[in-house]
Every structure is written in structure tokens, then in C-alpha cells.
Amino acid sequence: MSMLDLLTNQNETMMPDEYKHRSYEEMKKRVIEIKQAFGEKLFIPGHHYQKDEVIQFADATGDSLQLAQMAADNHKAEYIVFCGVHFMAETADMLSKKNQHVLLPDMRAGCSMADMANMKQTDRAWEKLTDLFGDTILPLTYVNSTAAIKAFVGKHGGATVTSSNAKNVLKWALTQKERILFLPDQHLGRNTAFDLGIPLEQMAVWDQIEEKLITDQPLHNIKMILWKGHCSVHEKFTIKNIEEMRKRDRDIQILVHPECTHEVVRASDLAGSTKFIIDTIEQAPPGSKWAIGTEMNLVKRIIDQHPDKQIESLNPDMCPCLTMNRIDLPHLLWSLESIEKGKPVGLIQVEEEITKEALHALNRMLTIR
């Protein structure tokens, strides 16, 4: 389901205005009271990119798939209040038990990248690409995609990928078919394929709006078909940011996420998943200098946790992920009080058939080493 569908869904209610006028201390007290009252029946996973005002109440922090798996392994929780974005809550719902209820505190908390690939576009792309290439394509999708896209990939023999395991999954995929359709983030697909030795000349971009393949190469040369999608946060880190940072301090190390553009990743010292970024800083020696290219809430948290190191954002003008930040303390409290009243709002319920096919894609990924 796209964010447009969610926003036009008349069954979904908006948070009452009264929550906007409650004091921080009052809301904090109420969240603590509700957490204590529900105990193990309530589980709050919080994504790394969430605000501190929300993360302080998280029972677990991590990336999207890691949190969904934690939720699935928590058999005592009746309510899973997922502090992240819509596709993450969908994955948690698909992996959880039937007696568990997954809630998203604000149904407007979507992901612009995930919304860059809808099913109408994907079905049309598949039809046109198979006309061009025949039965030689295997689809892969980043976990930052809707349940419907995951189901499409699962139905066609493909798998999901994370930024941590993308190389291993892509290696596997290339043993299955001659070429890959990589959804919905072109940058992760390009950077991963390049690291595996596939030259840029063997990569093309599928423009889902124009419905055409962008390449100047003969079709038989193409190995990677990259969906024209991107992360609106990570795409804002630029070569200019790197040049200015190095000019100011030649000893600083540049550490970025692979959702950044190919040029930025190649010009950096290190690139890797959110976990890789966190682990790299934790293992770095005191006094080391770092400029990090990822979401600002996480960068600020890393800075606070490592006062013995010089850490800053690669882009000093970077804003936090706007859709992720729709989950704030008022929305979290509203979600928890709705459970307390026995009328939970923001329930995430993925259709059974979509869940079945999407789990094929997720499970294929989990079996790849």
C-alpha cells in the first residue's frame, strides 16, 4: 500500500489535537506507566533513525529487518508498537504470530524510496523487460520496499536484500539468472554490483515513469537493471561535501552508507550498512576523526555516545529523515493509550496472499550465506 492510499483511507484516524498540547514530562510519565502496566505483553522496537524522545522508550533498537525479526521472536508480546516506517511494520506483521498485533504510531510515516516502486509500475516494467530480455532476469528487492513488492519478487524466484548482506545475495542471484532487476534503490544496487566486479557499462537504469531502459550499451551487455529509486536522505551527500571536509582536515575519515551515490561511495574511505557504521565508530581509536554520511538522528546519537572521538555529519546542513520523524512522543503515547483503551489505532495487517509470497523472498535471503 502506498502512502497516498494510506492518506486517503477514510478508516484511519488522525491523532487528536489534545496530544499536541501535553507537556513532555506528562507524556513521558504516561508512556512509562503504560509500559509498566502491560509488561511483556507490549514490545516497542525503535529504528536507529528515530528521535531520542522515542528511542528512550524502545525495548530494542536496530535496523528494519533486525527489529522485525526481534518482534517475531518475542512470543510474549501481544502488541508490537513499531517506531519506524510503514514497510518495517509490514515486515514485522508478516513475521509475527496471528495473535500479535503490529501498530504504527503514525500511518503517515512512510518511506519515499519504498514509494518509488508501486505494483502497477513493477508489473509494467516486468512485462517490458521480459519482452526485451526474455526469461533471463531475476528480481531482487531491498527490504526498504512495500510488502507487495517483496511478494512480487518472491513470486518470481527472487529474494530480499539488506545493506549488510546485499553482496552475498547478489552473488547468489547471479548464479540463478543472467541478469538482475534490482528494486527500488539504484544506488545500493550499483554500489553492490560494482564491488562484485560488474562494470558500470553493464548496468542500465529502468525509468518507471517514462517506462524505458536508460543505457547506451547493447542489450546483451546488461547484467544489472537498476530501478530509478533512491533514498532522499542519503542522496543529499555530495562530492562537494567530501572535498570541503578533506580540505578542512586531511586526517578526517569519510564513512558513508551504500545508499549514497556511486561517486560519493567511491570517494569515501569506508562505506557500509548502519550496523557497519556503528561498529566502525565503536572500534575506532580515541582521538580519531570521522565525517559520517547517514541520517542525522543517528549521527547525533553516535556523537553523544563517543565523546572521545571527533565525529560530525558529512553534510552539516543535513536534516533528519522527515517521514521517519513523523513518529514522535505524542504519536507514541496516542498509540499506547489506544491499546490501553482497547481500541488500538494504526494496525498494520498485510493480506495473507501477499504475506505468503513476500515470506518466500525473505526466507530465500535468510538461507543465503
CATH topology of the largest domain: Rossmann fold
Strand order of the largest sheet: 7-6-8-11-9-10
Annotated CATH homologous superfamily of the largest domain: NadA-like
List the total number of helices: 15
Approximate helicity band: 40-55%
Structure description:
The longest helix has 16 residues, at 352-367. The strands form 4 sheets. The chain has a 6-stranded mixed sheet with strand order 7-6-8-11-9-10, with helices on both faces. The chain has a 4-stranded mixed sheet with strand order 1-4-5-16. Strands 13-12-14-15 form a 4-stranded parallel sheet, sandwiched between helices. Helix 2 (24-38) packs parallel to helix 14 (329-340) and helix 7 (147-155) packs across helix 15 (352-367). It starts with a helix and ends with a helix. The protein has helices at 3-8, 24-38, 52-55, 64-73, 86-95, 119-133, 147-155, 166-176, 186-195, 239-248, 262-267, 274-283, 296-305, 329-340, 352-367; strands at residues 42-43, 45-47, 60-62, 79-81, 101-103, 137-142, 159-161, 179-183, 203-207, 212-214, 224-227, 253-256, 270-271, 289-293, 310-313, 347-348. The chain has 3 domains: 3-110 and 323-350, 3-Layer(aba) Sandwich (Rossmann fold); 114-231, Rossmann fold (3-Layer(aba) Sandwich), CATH 3.40.50.10800; 234-313, NadA-like (Rossmann fold, 3-Layer(aba) Sandwich). It is an alpha/beta fold.
List the keywords.
15% strand; 369 residues; Rossmann fold; 15 helices
Please provide a brief summary of the model.
With 369 residues, this protein is of the alpha/beta class.
